[in-house]
Specification:
The chain has 251 residues and is α/β, with parallel strands linked by helices. The chain is 51% helix and 16% strand. α8 links the parallel β7 and β8.
Length: 251
């Protein structure tokens, strides 16, 4: 069983990349069905006023440390082995493993045209990996009929893993809603990873990712969309962590 660290009520999995990929592979091998939340400061702070989102994070198969603050929180609690399991990197690691394991992929999410570009670029990088379907949802909740059609489409595809490229908390709530209806072993919410791997959004340099300053890079790239999130969430997160230090969850 994978340990978890309580970060302001959200239970972050004490994992590194190898552990996360191995756990997903175990679900596929053993016929289990789970979902993966890839969570950083934004996800934790969104959860502060949303008890349903806290529950979704804490009932996941994995809630991986997407940002360095989650890793530092884990280290402070005593999980020295924790490393960042960032959505775009997790996609690449799982696709790499899928070459030898024969895992089948499905893409759900993204703006119009993003999934097409994503499929093309991932095929060039991983031609041996099977992408068995995709669906770009409307920017509104699905109707009951649309939801049923999506469930049938995904289940009929034979996918082992469904990648979900939506924003937080939309993707987490989608996985919670549909997990019991879908046959694939893993639903993995990776947010902006679709745009990044489709070539539509640039990534921060690795040194900024390692030092926890990636938020500044993204803020400079998308100031109108992100200024409120970062300039409000980040100071509040630091204050709350100081008052409520991370700790291991008793399982």
């Amino acid at each position: 069983m994978i340990d978890r660290v309580d970060v302001l009520g959200v239970h972050i999995s004490a994992v590194n990349m190898d552990m996360a990929v191995a756990e997903i592979g175990r679900w596929i091998d053993q016929g289990e069905r789970h979902y993966v939340c890839v969570t950083g400061v934004h996800g934790v702070m969104e959860s502060q006023g949303d008890t349903d989102l806290v529950r979704i994070h804490n009932e996941s198969g994995l809630t991986t440390p997407d940002g360095m603050p989650m890793v530092w929180a884990g280290h402070r609690a005593g999980a020295a082995w924790m490393e960042r399991v960032y959505g775009p990197d997790l996609m690449l690691a799982v696709f790499t493993e899928a070459i030898n394991r024969g895992w089948k992929m499905f893409f759900y999410g993204g703006a119009e045209g993003v999934v097409d570009d994503l499929e093309d670029r991932m095929w060039l990088r991983f031609p041996a990996v099977s992408v068995v379907g995709s669906y770009t949802p409307p920017f509104r909740p699905l109707t009951t009929e649309e939801g049923e059609e999506v469930v049938q489409l995904i289940n009929d595809s034979g996918a082992d893993i469904v990648w979900i490229g939506m924003s937080t908390p939309k993707q987490e709530k989608w996985m919670d809603q549909f997990r019991s209806l879908l046959q694939p072993a893993a639903l993995i919410g990776v947010g902006a990873a679709f745009d990044i791997h489709a070539g539509r959004l640039s990534q921060a340099p690795r040194w900024m990712q390692r030092t926890g300053t990636e938020w500044l890079y993204r803020l400079l790239k998308e100031p109108r969309r992100l200024w409120r999130r970062y300039l409000s969430n980040n100071p509040r997160f630091v204050w709350k962590i100081w008052r409520r230090p991370p700790r291991f969850v008793e399982i």
